[in-house]
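pinned: reference chain
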Amino acid sequence: MVSFTIPGRPVPKQRPRMGKKGNIYTPKKCRDYESAVGWTARQVFKNPYDGPVSLQVRIYLAEAGGDLDNYVKSIQDGLNGIAWRDDRQITRLKASKTVRPGETERAEVVIQKL
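pinned: its structure tokens
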């Protein structure tokens, strides 16, 4: 079992956007957060897990915003190739979101190989 905290305000996954030249891209704010997730996970993972995994995510916010499933998706995408090879390996998922004024914003993640 591996656990870690991603500091700062979590960023929900946004819909892909259409660029001026017709290309599809993920908005920069979301890409930056996924990179931060990956950087944090690299501190605790030497190699990605093979096989099924369990993912637990706790989101802490000082003010409301975003759907829980979109926060989880950003974290899942940021962990691809680092915690697991592909997020299809997640067979168990538990997630929660706590909103409290003055809360230290962060995401707490627990990953377990099943």
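why pinned: The chain is about 25% helix and 30% strand. The mean pLDDT is 92.
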